[in-house]
Design goal:
Distance between the termini: 26 Å
Number of helices: 13
Order of helices and strands: HEEEHHEHEHEEHEHEEHEEHHEEHEEHEH
CATH class of the largest domain: Alpha Beta
Structural class: alpha/beta
Oligomer: single chain
Strand content: 15-25%
Largest sheet: 7 strands, mixed
Helix content: 25-40%
Radius of gyration: 22 Å
Bound molecules: ligand 7TS
Strand order of the largest sheet: 4-10-9-8-7-5-6
Number of domains: 2
Length: about 425
């Protein structure tokens, strides 16, 4: 286990004022079971700053109209705000063009879109897809569905005991039948930051396109899709301090252009007759029906907010918390950390030798502490570690060292009660 040297929380982020940031998140002022809320379930979903909440209220108060279709004033205002949000997202991930940014319901829908559309059009019987041993079910089940339909073979890059991908013999995963790779960037269960650049570069040597599941990445690490050279990237707004029900699929234009629509309906067409249709240009070809306009705009507001604090400062703050929590947890009797990779962010998962994670989670809830317990939608990964579940604490920009202390004290009481 490598615990990085503990850095004081102020180092390098003198201007980082966590108490001021907390005031922007109204939900954090709550008490739960009479105790101040300690929200450490950020990998499941992050809380929303007032700016995001205001954006939604403002939209429905003064802008609501359907986009792209109307000549009236409100429709123009709404369309502009919606398309401006797309531009913010394009800039946030450094896509070449906003036509490469598709609004979806979230990471899950974005991955299903690629698996169904690219998979049906370009994958054929006997082809191979590469995934990793730490995929969230969202980046596993869609590929299993298309694999079943098309008789494809799924190959899994294994995970070692530290929770790192075994990439030494990566080359050997590729054959002339390898036609796609879909890879987790940051593990939601272990916190491992995977060496996705190595996987992308190796895949491209074999002309294999790569999709990155960045659901747990966009809120912790800066992403530059052009530098990464990934072919697709998926993420959800709600883990990036934005609303639920909105997410992004980024795809290289040439690939998206070559793919058939995922869903049919309004907005995604150019011309329709009773017998056939032609399709709209990107990104609209993949946005059938009325989009989640309000939440797309609010995701833009979330990105503005994150940029204002600065992802680098946020990451530094979270890493300090992670290091501190790791060192403190290791002092607890019978506790084992699952996921001890050298490169980690955001997440710390652990088990006790004799106490079930659900008992830990329920006990902590009575103390006002929100952690997640379970398999975290990574059942095969839990199986790999020979455990049914973990307790997971996950950090966001507004968590504090004091909250880590509250967690540790809560766990000390758990040990006392359940021993
Ligand atoms: N991929 C990863 C790596 C995730 O962590 C999640 C959600 C998803 C995909 C799916 O995202 P969605 O927004 O489409 O649902 N992860 C979690 C979690 O760890 N606990 O709750 C949801």
């Amino acid at each position: 286990m490598s615990v990085k040297t503990l850095t004081p929380l102020t180092t390098g982020v003198d201007e980082y004022n966590v108490e001021k940031i907390r005031k922007d998140f109204p939900i954090l002022a709550q008490t739960i079971h009479g105790k101040p809320l300690v929200y450490l379930d950020n990998a499941a979903t992050a809380q929303k700053p007032q700016a995001v909440i205001d954006s939604i209220v403002e939209y429905y108060t003064s802008m609501n109209a359907n986009v792209h279709r109307g000549v009236h004033h409100l429709s123009e205002v709404s369309t502009k705000a919606f398309e401006d949000a797309r531009i913010k997202i394009k800039e946030f991930i450094n896509a070449k063009s906003e036509s490469e940014v598709i609004f979806t319901r979230g990471t899950t829908e974005a991955i299903n879109l690629v698996a169904a559309s690219y998979g049906r059009a370009f994958l054929k019987e006997g082809d191979e897809i590469i995934l990793t041993g730490m995929e969230h079910h969202s980046n596993l089940v869609p590929w299993q569905l298309i694999a079943k339909e098309k008789q494809l073979k799924i190959k899994i890059i294994p995970v070692d005991d530290n929770g790192e991908l075994v990439l030494d013999d990566l080359e050997n995963f590729f054959t002339e039948k390898t036609k796609f790779a879909a890879i987790n960037y940051v593990s939601n269960s272990l916190g491992t930051i995977n060496d996705v650049k190595k996987i992308i570069d190796t895949s491209h040597l074999h002309s294999v396109p790569v999709l990155l599941d960045a659901a747990q990445t966009v809120n912790h690490l800066e992403i530059d899709v052009q530098k990464l050279d990934c072919d697709f990237l998926a993420f959800s707004g709600h883990k990036l301090y934005g609303p639920t029900g909105i997410g992004i699929l980024y795809g290289k234009k040439s690939l998206l252009d070559s793919m058939p629509p995922y869903m049919g309906g309004g907005d995604m067409i150019a011309k329709v007759t009773y017998s056939e249709s032609t399709y709209n240009e990107l990104p609209h070809k993949f946005e059938a029906g009325t989009s989640n306009i309000a939440d797309a705009i609010a995701l833009g507001a979330a990105i503005d907010y994150v940029k204002q604090i600065g992802l680098e400062a946020i990451a530094h703050h979270e890493n300090c918390l992670l290091e501190y929590a790791t060192a403190e947890l290791l002092n607890l009797e019978g506790l084992k950390i699952i996921g001890t990779a050298k490169n980690k962010c955001g997440v710390i998962s652990f088990v006790f030798d004799t106490i079930h994670p659900h008992d830990v989670g329920t006990f902590l809830d009575f103390e006002g502490i929100a952690v997640r317990t379970g398999h975290h939608c990574t059942q095969p990964l839990m199986h790999r570690f020979g455990i049914p579940a973990t307790t997971r604490a996950s950090f966001a920009m507004y968590n504090t060292k004091n909250e880590v202390d509250i967690l540790i004290n809560g766990l000390k009481r758990v040990i006392k009660v359940f021993k």
